[in-house]
Amino acid sequence: MSDEEKKPRNPGSRTRLGLSALSGLLAGFAALAVAEPVAGSVRPQAGPVVAVGAAAIDRTPSAVKDWAIRNFGTDDKLILQLGILAVLALFALALGMFALRHRRTGAAGVLVFGAVGATAATSRPDSTSITDALPSVLGAVVGAGLLYVLVGRLPAPPRDVPAAPDAAPRGHGEGWDRRGFVIAATAAAAASAGAGALGRVLNGSSGQEAVASRKNIDLPPPDSRAPAVPRGAQARVAGVSPFITPNGDFYRVDTALVVPKVDATAWRLRIHGKGVTREKTLTFDDLLRRELIERDITLTCVSNEVGGPYVGNARWIGVRLDGLLKECGVRPPSAGGPADQLVARSVDGMTIGSPVEDVMDGRDAMLAIGMNGRPLPFDHGFPVRMLVPGLYGYVSACKWIKDIELTTFDAYDSYWVKRDWAREAPIKTQSRIDTPKPFARPKAGTVMVAGVAWAQHRGIDKVEVRVDDGPWQEATLTAEDSRDTWRQWSYAWQAAKGGHTLTVRATDRTGEVQTEKRTRTVPDGASGWHSVVVTAE
Fold it and tell me: In the predicted model, is pLDDT for residue 168 greater than 80?
């Protein structure tokens, strides 16, 4: 066989294009894989996908965020990250094909990706060092170098196609280095997979101190215990939500793509600002030594649609917030205090503004450290979060809290207010049908209709059910735990065969009847009656 016959034949133009696209994809994979262990050494939130995702969340219109929560629920963050990875994959494929004729410029394009990630990481509110840029920068450098090497092992365009000015010299019409390309691509893929695995290990171990600090916490008995939940608080109807929501089932709605893991032994909370005459900096042990209260409180997310799932009830342990504020010299506006807004800041940069008047009006606003008898789960704010009964979470329930500043609503707009949500948002009177489910097909006869109703800090006085366009019928309420918790209800419906619409409404202790008017969640929570369509057979 002649030397000419031994040389690998040049691939066609489509094959060259496909191999260059593959080179781009491998380069992108390598960039992200290298960034993983670097982020594990710096901090997980500095990774390019997380940083770019967080920046995207900040810049997404409220209506789009609301749509994502409504359609994807707690999977909205996963969907966002998958979307980012899909866009990056397309970008990498395009760069690879571009690099076939513009090798240096194509490789430089990967560096542009790194610059975007570095900018996103260092511009985050929780960024404290320029080292947050390292994961994106180092990953991009490796990716750019790999793309340059892989494309260099592909054959150049035919002689009748002019080479680009920035194209590195490659032989025209000569046998291409197929073996070298396969070896380089395989080695790059294997090394990238290894780097990615190492990154996951480092990211997982970065919060070990926090995990250990949580395991070492033994919550002391509260000084002010919550009364036992009344025996009749849980409706004896299959399908109704449990009165106390288990920690693992409690809803989670926030903007954190990576759940912060804060070491309780290193945690600090500063209280300062307008009207504060004695600033305080508290440790977790300081809170444990204070008088602790235990209360059952139902939380509701403002993104909860009518009949939605983002409401849950738990038994919380914490320190009264009004007592801490009074020790700092804070007075509510009604007592002549100069601050009308309390801004709580989280370790992830979130800011939440609460009315000082509501926080200090005697309700059980607290800095919570326990949930259902255990230290707070990381997903729900460990080591400390804020709670204010009667207010939607976005104006009261700061997780992973690290700072409290007293100011005014005129002087400062918190995170969600900047995005068109209302400054103040008391929870609206709402009710929900838990059973039967929409489009259920129960047997005709007695059908138990049941669910929950809530109007935190006012309490539920009455729940009514309507079948089709008939009269409102009063449902049976379960025993009330407190005015800060939801209340369950049931109604024995004598179902005739055929299709029917079941509707529910509640009346709170002030006499306010739940409004029929349907509104969306923006700017201060959804309203309207919940209804389900069923067919009795």
Answer: no
415 vs 437: CA distance, rounded Å: 36
CB burial of residue 289 (10 Å; 0-12, 13-18, 19+): exposed
Work out the end-to-end distance of the chain between its first and last CA atoms, rounded to an integer number of angstroms. 82
Under DSSP, is residue 203 helix (H, G, I), strand (E, B) or coil?
Answer: helix
Confidence of residue 58 (pLDDT cuts 50, 70, 90): confident
CA dihedral sign, ordered 225, 226, 232, 237: negative
User: What are the E-state strand segments in 262-379?
Assistant: 268-273, 280-283, 293-300, 311-320, 341-346, 351-355, 366-371, 374-375
Neighbours of 119 (CB within 10 A): 14
330 touches 343 (CB < 8 A): no
Q: Which residues contact 167 (CB under 8 A, 6 or more apart)?
A: 101, 102, 103, 104, 156
Report which residue type is found at 523: P
CA distance 282 to 268: 6
Question: What is the model's pTM?
Answer: 0.86
> In 3D, which of 281, 247, 258 has the Cα closest to residue 376?
247
| Mean pLDDT, the chain, whole residue set | 92
Could you tell me if 449 and 533 are in contact, meaning their C-beta atoms sit under 8 angstroms apart? no
pLDDT reported for residue 437: 97
What residues have CB less than 8 Å from 286, skipping those under 6 apart? Answer: none
Task: Give me 351's structure tokens.
Answer: 């800011």
How far is it, in rounded angstroms, from Cα 354 to Cα 393? 10
| Tokens, residue 487 | 């209340």
Q: How far, in whole angstroms, is CA 234 from its chain's centroid?
A: 30
Enter the tokens of residue 335.
Answer: 């007592």
* Strand partners for 353: 343
**Alpha carbons 377 and 400: distance in angstroms, whole number:** 11
pLDDT for 103 equals 92
CA 331 from centre of chain? 33
CA–CA gap between residue 527 and residue 520 (Å, rounded)? 7
CB 527 within 8 A of CB 306: yes
Q: How far is CA 369 from CA 226, 259, 381, 492, in A?
A: 15, 17, 9, 41
Secondary structure of 54-112 in HEC code, one letter for each residue: HHHHHHCCHHHHHHHHHHHHHHHHHHHHHHHHHHHHHHHHHHHHHHCCCHHHHHHHHHH
Is the Cβ–Cβ distance between 133 and 121 less than 8 Å? yes
Q: Encoding tokens for residue 125?
A: 């509110």
Q: What is the pLDDT, as a whole number, of residue 72? A: 83
Identify how many contiguous H helices and E strands the chain contains and give both numbers: 12, 18
Q: Is 488 left (phi over 0), alpha (psi -120 to 50) or beta?
A: beta
Question: Which run of H or E residues covers position 178?
Answer: helix 178-205
